[in-house]
Each structure stands twice: as structure tokens, then as C-alpha cells.
């Protein structure tokens, strides 16, 4: 270490011959992602014989002895805050959080602190290796403020890249429980409808047919029917903003308590929601499964239904 930076000695092997430099480095230095290594090379942080190698596409011979200078991660812009977290899994590379309803995931206008990121910066202090060169947690996916449930967070560059690839490949198992208005006539189905920002309200998402949208696919099945509402499980093939909320509303069965996409439910249900003081969308990220990006082990987690939704289900069944 020097001045807070780390010097890594890299010895490329004969089997690397003919590879791009960034690819060979990613194989030789598995603790850093290929994108991070590429940016370090371009910044002149890789030396051979005292001279910098700055071209990530350089074809290596497989006999190079290199020195890589990795700067100390820059501090995150957001403040670390001691906010209680429910951690269901944690290791040196990642953690899985069971987020309560009401907690914002990422700081943004109107929510600059008191978020999950602020809590993670406190919880993970000294453990973050510097995602993209900054000591911050890697938020690969998000769930809405008023949705509860499971969220995977990367601590390291390598874990962040590995999880991002799985989300991009739609190989992550994500299942949500939703209480909806009315009872679907079908037992199960799939909504395959592209989503984009609504042209009439930029805070909302909408199903679009003009080529603007990103493909969004939700597989759903009815688990339980009450008199005027139902419990539905949704398995996400994609993970677009507000996907479950918009797709279920498009079926004519919006989430109970959803202030944005919901319509007035039957009078009995309205009275129940009011009596229970239930003021959020009835949506819970109940299951999360993925391949650990470093150990390659299959990981699977389940989150119990939170107390407010249990109370709602009980009342609906009366």
C-alpha cells in the first residue's frame, strides 16, 4: 500500500496470449471487475517496465509482469446513518436486506437521507472495496418505498458486476405477493407489455405501444380468493419500474392501497383499508434467488409476510 493505494503485482500466463489486456487482467485479478480494470488502464494505473499501458484492447503475449496501482476508494457522497436493518444474509461480497415498507432505497430529490443507502454506508463501513472507485454499496435493483421485502446489495465491484449480469439475463428468481382489488377470473396468466414513462404524468409508468417502452414480463397466479379481493403471486421475468403495479392494474385488478395506479375498490374493502390505516400498496418482495457471483453457490431467500399485510389478509377473510 502507498498513500492509501494498493499496488498489485500481476503476472500474466501463457494461456493469456492473444487476449485483450482488460480480459487478461480480469482473469488475473478477479477481485476487480473488467469495467473497473478498463478504467484503471485508461487512467494510466497499469505499468510495464516503468511505462504505462493505456490501451485496454492491447493484445498481450502472456509473459507480461505488470504493476497495477489501485487508488483508495473515494468516499461516498451520501452520509452514513445508523438506521436499523434486517439482514437475512451477509458475506464479504454481498448482503441481502429485508426492507420494510416506507424506507426509500436510494437518495434522490425529496429523500436526500434516511434511505437504505445511508443505512448501508453505516452498516458496511470499512467493508466496501470501492464499486467504480467509490466506497458505496452496489444497488443492482430497487423496490419502491412502500413495497416491503428482499433486496440484494453488492459490497464489491466483482459482486456488483456479477449480479448485474444475472439481472440483465433475467435469471434472478423474484417473486412478489400482492393483494389485489377484485378476483381474477383466470387461475394464472402472463402480462407481456412494454413500459415507459407516462406522457401525461412523468411520475407514473404506463404500458406503451409506440416503441418507446422496454419489454416487461410478469407471470402471475392466483393463490387465494376472498369475496372482493385476491392474493396473487407475481414472478418477474424483467424488473421495470412499477412493473407489478402497472401490469396488475392493466388486468383490472390493481393493488389494494396503491395511491397511484389503484382505483376505488369495493366499499367493504375501502372500509377495511381505512379501519386498518393501511396506506401503502399491498405488495411484498417475498422470495429472491440467484447464483452467488463469486462462490457460484445457489442462494435462495424468503421473507415472511409483514404484520400489516397479515392483518389485511385476516380482515379480508372475515
Description:
This protein is an alpha+beta fold. Strands 6, 7, 9, 10, 11, 12, 15, 16, 17 and 18 form a 10-stranded mixed β-sheet that branches. A 4-stranded antiparallel β-sheet has the order 1-4-2-3, with no helix packed on it. Helix 1 crosses helix 2. It is elongated.
Shape: elongated
Q: Low-confidence runs (pLDDT<50, min 5 residues)?
A: none
Compute the CA-based radius of gyration: 23 Å
**Structural class based on helices, strands and sheet pairing:** alpha+beta
Question: Into which percentage range does the β-strand content fall?
Answer: 25-35%
Mean pLDDT: 89
Q: Report the count of strand segments.
A: 18
Number of H/I helices: 7
Series of H and E elements: EHHEEEEEEHEEEHEEEEEEHHEEH
How far apart, in Å, are the first and last alpha carbons?
A: 65 Å
**Largest β sheet strand count, sense and barrel closure:** 10 strands, mixed
What percent of the residues sit in helical stretches (DSSP H or I)?
10-25%
